[in-house]
Write a structure and sequence with these properties.
With 162 residues, the chain is α/β, with parallel strands linked by helices. The protein has 6 helices and 6 strands, in the order αβαβααβαβββα. InterPro entries: Aldolase_TIM (IPR013785), rSAM_sf (IPR058240).
């Protein structure tokens, strides 16, 4: 994970720590052609961890990722097939909510928050083009997100109120 030595062990430690505090944990996983074959093994790990939720996202080449997109792009059909197999592995063992999100679905409904607090959404024009709609520090940040990403926000609500 992340390419840093010790990162995986540190994340696993923190997950155990959070379990002891009875905190609801959600794991986000980006799937590309480089790690798609590892998805069943990853699903078994997620099943052992037992988080509240697991989101499996199809690789979406934005920003610096565009430079490596040819190496990481995965066909949507393959992604859906593998992700649904992973969902079955995890959901058969307990209450973990598994969300599978294809790249095209997220383009029009998914706000991306950058490290500087800027809120970015798909421009609606070029395939991987984003537009900044403000900052998380703006008083009307939630309104801006809801006005651009409204359909997904309504669809997602049941996932977050369980």
């Amino acid at each position: 994970m992340r390419g840093y030595i010790g990162h995986f062990d540190k994340v696993m430690q923190r997950l155990e720590w959070l379990k002891g505090l009875d905190v609801r944990v959600k794991i986000n996983t980006m799937i590309s052609s480089q790690n798609m074959s590892d998805l069943p093994e990853l699903a078994r790990l997620v099943r052992r961890i037992g988080p509240w939720g697991w989101s499996i996202y199809q690789f979406w080449p934005l920003g610096p990722a565009q430079a490596v997109s040819v190496r990481h792009e995965a066909a949507s059909e393959d992604f859906v097939l593998r992700a649904e197999e992973a969902r079955k592995i995890v959901e058969c063992a307990g209450p973990t909510v598994v969300e599978v999100s294809q790249q095209l679905r997220r383009r029009s409904t998914y706000p991306l928050i950058y490290h500087d607090g800027s809120i970015n959404v798909h421009s609606g024009n070029e395939v991987n083009s984003l537009v900044c709609i403000g900052s998380i520090f703006d008083p009307d940040a939630r309104l801006k997100i809801d006005s651009r990403c409204g359909p997904e926000r309504l669809e997602a609500e049941p996932r977050y109120v369980r």
